[in-house]
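Ops channel
N.P.: pipeline sanity check, posting one input/output pair.
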């Protein structure tokens, strides 16, 4: 069971936003050739084309690659107005962004939640700005019901929540509620694993710090919210959020 939506939603949602809201028309796609990175890049590419965008090329990084000069020079020659990277920071995302400056490829870089982290900012260094990233969850800071959780988290850890902190908290509370229901259903005795699993499957309209959660037949959340972040002043900054397929 998941309380964040899946990458087959996150990739297309990012493409929709970048094509329709940010107005990009021509993109070059690069991925780290890993399961997550290639999957989200392929889904992004498919939706970007469906939105009328042109994909000028799609390359895969090799394991351990850290010099992207030749690749970026080739990409620059196709004249894209954005670069989409599917993958994580440690597989090349941050260095790819940093080295774009050396070949004067002065266009935005966008990616999934694999780059929405401080490590990306460190590796991209002074070229981190003008990057965009999607997160497959609501930004809890926009929800009144999350106010107490955010304050308690700050007090406990002396730092602000991460992109999925509220989702982890919500998942824990859903499990606790399911355990309670399963114990009661077992006559206040130790429930079976299946009884607990069934309680979670039956979760409907659970109201918490990320909104209202229910699960579909596959165990995926019906709360398919995607958040968009942009690097400004060397920091990831919340930009927008929407339910995929419902945005204007």
């Amino acid at each position: 069971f998941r309380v964040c939506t899946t990458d087959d939603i996150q990739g297309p949602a990012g493409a929709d936003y970048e094509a329709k809201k940010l107005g990009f028309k021509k993109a070059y796609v690069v991925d780290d050739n890993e399961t997550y990175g290639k999957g989200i890049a392929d889904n992004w590419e498919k939706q970007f084309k469906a939105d009328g965008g042109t994909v000028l090329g799609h390359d895969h990084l090799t394991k351990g690659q850290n010099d992207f000069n030749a690749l970026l020079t080739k990409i620059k020659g196709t004249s894209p107005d954005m670069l989409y990277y599917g993958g994580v920071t440690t597989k090349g995302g941050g260095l790819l962004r940093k080295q774009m400056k050396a070949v004067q490829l002065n266009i935005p870089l966008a990616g999934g939640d694999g780059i929405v982290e401080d490590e990306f900012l460190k590796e991209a260094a002074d070229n981190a700005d003008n990057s965009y990233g999607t997160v497959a969850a609501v930004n809890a800071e926009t929800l009144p019901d999350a106010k107490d959780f955010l304050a308690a988290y700050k007090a406990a850890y002396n730092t602000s929540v991460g992109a999925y902190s509220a989702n982890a908290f919500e998942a824990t509370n859903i499990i606790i509620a399911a355990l309670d229901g399963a114990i009661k259903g077992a006559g206040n005795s130790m429930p079976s694993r299946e009884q607990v699993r069934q309680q979670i499957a039956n979760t409907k309209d659970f109201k918490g710090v990320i909104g209202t959660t229910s699960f579909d037949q596959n165990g995926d959340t019906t709360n398919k919210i995607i958040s968009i972040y942009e690097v400004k002043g060397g920091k990831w900054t919340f930009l927008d959020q929407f339910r995929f397929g419902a945005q204007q």
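N.P.: looks fine end to end. The chain is about 40% helix and 20% strand.
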